[in-house]
Amino acid sequence: MAMWLEVSQRLGNRHLQRTTSGADDEHAGVLHEIVARDCPGARRLLRAHIECSRDVARNLTLHRLVEAA
Questions:
Q1: CA angle, 8 then 13 then 15, to 5°
Q2: What is the pLDDT of residues 37-60, one digit of tens each?
Q3: pTM here?
């Protein structure tokens, strides 16, 4: 989470498509599935979280490239 906050501060919240509370909710969901011993559920939520994070990173990168051009 510290890295997400650092990125948020550097780029400004206007460029971010989700909030840290959204990421926190995703993490809590994964942990809930693990505690419940639901490996398929935890795996599904973790994959969705990674895909979302990847998409946010791509969009931020593209936005910065367009700004720099």
A1: 95
A2: 999 999 999 999 999 889 988 998
A3: 0.62
